[in-house]
Design a protein that fits this description.
By secondary structure, this protein is of the alpha/beta class. It has helices spanning 2-15, 78-85, 102-117, 143-152, 234-239, 261-266, 278-297, 302-309, 311-314, and strands at residues 32-37, 50-55, 59-67, 90-94, 129-141, 174-178, 183-185, 188-189, 208-213, 245-250, 319-325. It has a single domain (5-154, 168-323), classed as Rossmann fold. Helix 2 runs parallel beside helix 7. InterPro entries: AB_hydrolase_fold (IPR029058), Chlorophyllase-like (IPR017395).
Amino acid sequence: MQQKHGERKREMAKKVGDDGIALDFQVGDEAVEIINVKRSFLFDVLPCPLLVFSPTTQGSYPVLLFFHGFMLQPNCYKSLLLHISSHQYIIVAPQFSPMATQSQEVKNAKKIVEWLSTNNLDAVLPEKVLPDLQKVAVSGHSRGGKTAFALALGHGGSSTSNATQLEPPLKISALLGIDPVAGSSLSCLCSPNILQFIPYSFDQSIPVAVIGSGLSNQRAFGVCPPGAPNGVNHAEFFNESKPPCYYFLAKDYGHLDMLDDGTAALISWMTKSGKASKDTMRRTVGGLFVAFLKAYLDGQADDLINIVESPKIRAPITLDPVISIEE
């Protein structure tokens, strides 16, 4: 028993830094290449350009789809996505048109999944790097968070049929939302309308993680509307998710505080923002993604369990509440 306990302590030491914070919240050791994928005669089925973040070491890696927020672009999240990819994940981040409706975004997301399912991603990745299409997760921020939920729930139809709700062509194994929002108010919901305002009503069987921000339901300067209003924000998405599901609230941060500093500074007037370091918020969101993906794509749940059980010790910011509902 003592030997096992000692082994457990050594293993734990590798998972946390000297300050006790989980190493998932630090940038990983993998070198990452950023690849711009444009529509071309080779990829004419792509509905929009992609920004791909790829490990460079030879191997096969899980794939994370990431959908940006309203009027934003993947470059706004470069630091966050580099963090996640450095822990050995391939990230595919579409650049949707700012003129697209959310229904069009969901349909385009479905087309991108179809594009991935026919092994097109192999052609754009570094040499000897391959996507593991048996391990695919979807995610997004703000409106993009809702797009991720809608895709995972089967919305978006098919590019080859008139169906409106079908299983995606790739198996999706995990779903993550950063401050997802379904509309500007309860009376102004964006199509497709996926919220039913009934606990556990989502028809989903995959694990879900929702990361909310504590200031996102507040007005900026007392004038600008909230980025994620009550009733249609992260709390409702979590309430409607079936187990296993996780909820992390970044209590002292705002709706856009995980964006890169330059972007955040330009649009800081739009939504309520926290006063603490935005880099720490990005590291927190990135670390939660990594811990969740390791648990549900790689079968390594220790980090996620430790963060859920001891967020005050393992996380770099205040996460309150942290809720875990198991099957």
